[in-house]
User: What shape does this take?
Amino acid sequence: MRLKDDNALKEKVQNNIDQREFAEENILFEDISIKKGPNEFDPAVLGQSVSVINSNWEIKYGELYGNPISRFFKKLVKKLTAFIIVPLFEQQNNVNCNVTKSLVEVNKYINDAPRYMMEQIDCQHSTNIEAVKTQDQLIEVLENKIAMLEARIEALEKGSDNDQ
Assistant: This one.
């Protein structure tokens, strides 16, 4: 049954490709539709998920429940398999702890990124303002020199007109 479904799907995809006349060189990303919506990033959802993970990362080698006979057999199985199960629990708890720490740091980074970016923009803006002030001062000095040179040229021209 599964093989028939796979073959039917392959034929359907091949027919779709043939109808659109795609070749390897003319397939573009624009031809692939990407559904947007629930997959969009939401920092609030990330924060909630990180909180849940942070509070539930540890796997406990739990209590035994049930009637006394079933508890006896569960306890027996637990003791017989403890040399295998307990190290696995410890390793998994270690992995869970490290993943949770990483996710907490990612969440902090995402929450702090806008503030950090604004600080960078403010710093760059301040630097730009100082550069503009410096450039304005240089322009003013150059304009003064140009005015002095123009006055000197006029004086020299008047002096040469008087000599002739």
User: Anything to note?
Assistant: The chain has three helices and no strands. Residues 68-163 form the longest helix (96 residues).
